[in-house]
């Protein structure tokens, strides 16, 4: 039986003290403007939070070139995850894959031979590491029946991810007036690949691949220049210019950058390196609260328990200026009064994280454990308490 109880639970409570933010602010690193890089569009994003750290023309329509193959890979990864395909499945190399994407096409090639079979895993690595157009088309035909059918699947997945300014017409990124995307959409795709398919994402860090006796280097030169870079894809056509989608992990922070329309191989790498260095120098990813970690204790009416701890259903991770984590302010509100029964998946409040006057995270709070309805006496007693509130 529960002991007698007193009503308490302020509507808004502060975690941060008044002095700590002032001390942290004095130690904060001033954040300058992003570097000027000679490209048509770019974006730099914190992978964990999605916070945009720098951008220029992030929503302008761009030609993705071979960065298209990231969606090709994502679509194949989905087929594998859904058991519609396996890495060992043989793929017949069609004449279309050979002619449109093979050595004679003038584009990037894995040098697979027409009317032969090649395992899915080999084709994926050929596409990811060598940027093989023939491998891309062969995979598209295996998963989608035809390359056109596969492009429809790519567009379906793009819409599911929120890539609403993107349209795919082929699996390779070869020029087409109806093939387009934005820097913002591509970074969304990259985050999905890293988050949903980490075992396959590691292939993007491989510097070379050999097939049919031919060794080819990964065209992402940042893999050699910067040991913290572990992917993800290059792209180039005469009309698109030189493009690069990159991700790097330093300490506990992962950043993703996209540049479109540089004027050379080196230009796209220099631009990407400058953006990444800017992001890592002046920003960091901070874990404010862990999944299920108690943020507050709330009063429960008519319950078998008098109080219940409430917390977030996932880790609370934010992006902030480097050295300013102690200045973050966390507040929460409760949907009072809380009346049992309470389910563990029932939102009972909201947590807000602010950086100065800017809200940088907002998410619901849940009971750390469910609270069952109390006995008859408790319910009657608490009915009186609620009436008197």
What is the oligomeric state here? single chain
Q: Walk across the major sheet and give the strand order.
A: 1-15-17-18-13-12-16
Stated plainly, the CATH topology of the largest domain is called Beta-lactamase
So, the CATH homologous superfamily of the largest domain?
A: DD-peptidase/beta-lactamase superfamily
Q: What key phrases describe this protein's structure?
A:
389 residues; alpha+beta; Peptidoglycan synthesis regulatory factor (PBP3), Domain 2; Beta-lactamase; 2 domains; elongated; disordered N terminus
Q: What is the fold's blueprint, element by element?
A:
Blueprint: E1 12-14, H1 20-27, E2 41-46, E3 52-56, H2 68-81, E4 90-92, H3 95-101, E5 117-119, H4 120-130, H5 133-144, H6 147-161, H7 183-196, H8 198-201, E6 208-211, E7 214-217, H9 222-225, E8 229-237, E9 241-250, E10 253-262, H10 265-282, E11 283-289, E12 296-301, E13 307-311, E14 316-321, E15 329-334, E16 338-339, E17 349-355, E18 358-367, H11 376-388
Parallel strand pairs: 12-16
Antiparallel strand pairs: 1-15, 2-3, 2-10, 4-5, 6-7, 8-9, 9-10, 11-14, 12-13, 13-18, 15-17, 17-18
Describe what you observe in this structure.
The longest helix has 18 residues, at 265-282. By secondary structure, the protein is of the alpha+beta class. The chain has helices spanning 20-27, 68-81, 95-101, 120-130, 133-144, 147-161, 183-196, 198-201, 222-225, 265-282, 376-388; strands at residues 12-14, 41-46, 52-56, 90-92, 117-119, 208-211, 214-217, 229-237, 241-250, 253-262, 283-289, 296-301, 307-311, 316-321, 329-334, 338-339, 349-355, 358-367. It folds into 2 domains: 12-25 and 290-388, Sandwich (Peptidoglycan synthesis regulatory factor (PBP3), Domain 2), CATH 2.60.410; 41-285, Beta-lactamase (3-Layer(aba) Sandwich), CATH 3.40.710.10. A hairpin with a 2-residue loop joins strand 17 (349-355) and strand 18 (358-367).
């Amino acid at each position: 039986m529960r002991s007698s109880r007193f009503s308490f639970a302020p509507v808004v409570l502060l975690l941060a003290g008044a002095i700590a933010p002032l001390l942290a602010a004095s130690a904060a690193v001033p954040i300058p403007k992003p570097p000027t890089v000679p490209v048509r569009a770019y974006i730099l994003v914190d992978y964990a939070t999605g916070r945009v750290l720098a951008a220029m023309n992030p929503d302008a329509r761009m030609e993705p070139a071979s960065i298209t193959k990231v969606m090709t890979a994502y679509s194949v990864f989905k087929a594998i995850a859904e058991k519609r395909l396996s890495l060992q499945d043989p793929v017949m190399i069609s004449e279309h894959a050979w002619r449109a994407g093979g050595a004679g096409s003038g584009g990037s090639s894995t040098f697979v031979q027409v009317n032969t079979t090649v395992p899915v895993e080999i084709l994926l690595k050929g596409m990811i590491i060598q940027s093989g157009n023939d491998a891309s088309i062969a995979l598209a035909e295996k998963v989608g029946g035809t390359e056109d059918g596969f492009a429809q699947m790519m567009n379906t997945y793009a819409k599911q991810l929120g890539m609403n300014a993107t349209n795919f017409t082929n699996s390779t990124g070869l020029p087409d007036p109806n093939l387009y995307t934005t820097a913002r959409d591509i970074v969304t795709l990259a985050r999905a690949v890293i988050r949903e398919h980490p075992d396959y994402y590691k292939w993007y860090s491989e510097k070379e691949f050999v097939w049919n006796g031919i060794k080819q280097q990964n065209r992402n030169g940042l893999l050699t220049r910067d040991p913290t870079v572990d992917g993800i894809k290059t792209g180039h056509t005469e009309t698109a210019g030189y493009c690069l989608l990159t991700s790097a992990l330093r300490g506990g922070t992962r950043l993703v950058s996209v540049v479109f329309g540089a004027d050379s191989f080196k230009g796209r790498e220099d631009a990407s390196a400058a953006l990444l260095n800017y992001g890592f120098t002046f920003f960091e990813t901070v874990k404010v609260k862990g999944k299920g970690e108690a943020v507050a204790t709330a009063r429960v009416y008519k319950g078998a328990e008098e109080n219940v701890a409430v917390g977030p259903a996932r880790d609370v991770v934010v992006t902030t200026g480097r050295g300013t984590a102690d200045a973050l302010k966390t507040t929460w509100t409760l949907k009072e009064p809380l009346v049992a029964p309470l389910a563990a998946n029932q939102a009972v409040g909201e947590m807000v994280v602010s950086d100065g006057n800017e809200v940088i995270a907002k998410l619901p709070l849940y009971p750390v454990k469910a609270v069952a309805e109390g006995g008859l006496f408790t319910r009657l007693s608490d009915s009186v308490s609620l009436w008197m509130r």
